[in-house]
Amino acid sequence: MDDVLIAIIEKNSRERLHVSLREFKGHVFCDVRLHWLPTPGSEAKATHKGVTVRLDKLAELRQAIEVAEAKARELGLL
Question: Cβ distance 18 to 32 under 8 Å?
Fold first, then answer.
């Protein structure tokens, strides 16, 4: 399977988070990886910084992110 890019989230002017589905050793994972831009307008390069999540754990991760967002709102951070 070729990688399937789901989203690119801008972190700052030189860094992006790429959310993808990718295969490794016959298993498909969700990969959230930091990419950086060597120069403005260049192609983003992957870094070693990121997390790979088994697909059966995506619902649990989504729930944790929703709780984090709700807590940030409760604390007036958003």
Answer: yes
